[in-house]
Write a structure and sequence with these properties.
Strand content: over 45%
Largest sheet: 8 strands, antiparallel
Helix content: under 10%
Shape: globular
Structural class: mainly beta
Number of helices: 2
Distance between the termini: 41 Å
Amino acid sequence: MATKIDEELACAPAPVSDHPFLSGIHRPMAAEHTITDLAVDGTIPTALDGCYLRIGPNPIAPDPANYHWFSGDGMVHGLKLANGRAHWYRNRWIRSERVGEALGVPKAPGPRNLFDTVNTNVLAIGGQTYALVEAGSYPVKLGPTLGDQQYDAFGGTLLGSYTAHPHLDPLTGENHAICYSAHNPGEVRHVVVDAHGKVTRELAIPVEHGPMIHDCAITARYVVILDLPVTFSLPAAMAGEPFPYRWNPQHRARVGLLPRNGAAADVIWCDVEPCSVFHVANAYDRADGAVIMDVCAYGTMFGPEAVGPDGAARGLERWTIDPVTGTVAITTIDSTLRNSPVPTNAASASPIAMPMPWPCPPIRRRNSSVIPGCSGTIWWRARGRFTISVRAGIRANSCSSPRPKMRWKVKVGWWVSSWTWRTTPPISWCWTPCASKIRRSAWSTCRIACRQASTATGCRADITTRGDFAS
């Protein structure tokens, strides 16, 4: 039975509003909570040992008439998992000056830079856990239970703003970032933080109009700079808008290839079709000298009345950046994916098969069918982009040693697996995984065929289809 402890720190509930980022799933939480010994449906793998953290805007006293989603007070959430148990959940506001005053508590100690609202990302850097934001505030170092917070310029080595999305080089342990600030619209900075959490490089790169650069990418040779047409808007700032960035069709859209240890004059600028990019899936160097980068792109972003992201998503795209011709060729990988691809750090700056997008809620359908006798086939059809995972099992007179074997073959459209024998695990239904395959475009005919040893008394296939599909 879970024990719930409501902390004393709370604020007045946000006013009921039809503001899209103050209602529904975005309605702010009004209190901090600690919940211990959470009830678990199912089983938590014992290998999951750590703390799952997320952060996002959670404004204490929002004004619906002048609220932008990117400006809300930060709140970090944590879920501690260990030994197959969910030990606790906690949520804590980042103790900015505004939050401390509103809650009547001390603000978090440490140096400030420009502003101190931190609400965008949470990462491990140099052995510490940091809450991050771009364009102004220093990072906030978080303690293991989230209550201990300290603004930290990486031990005093960071001279200006940081980013919400640094990229880790798994070979060196360095984090690379492209940082910007509305207070200095004529430059962005390449910042490198080493494996010990200290800044070792802070290179200024001249730009125009003050571009908003939310993310970047790294390859073995380059840091990739996304200088795209969302820029600082002086009229928006003078009007008191909390997020003064707007779509600027007059801004030249370009991608910069900065040699990892190069100077600002060494950046190779390549023109690209005007668009907006929040997040990069990954990037790597191709053998012919081109750079391959996968991004989630939007046609435009932040129109005159925007209170949050408002652009039309183009999906996951592959950009082939040619440093010789100074051009970028764009192809669509998947038009259904929207945002926040998450590659593993181990694959950073190297080719990967496919990033994992989030959020993109999958459609799931499961169909279990029994194949009579000792062999048979299940047929089904699906259309769209989907992943099919199949496990097949046999009912044996006994699953004890010697265990029965089964043989399977899976066909998904044009793809056919080979027949494979597998010894089944020692359980009543002797399940074994069969195949997992991605398929897209037209209708595909899919089937699984199973054959068993003579010790089996039945065969069953359990089919799960995930993705955007029709069937």
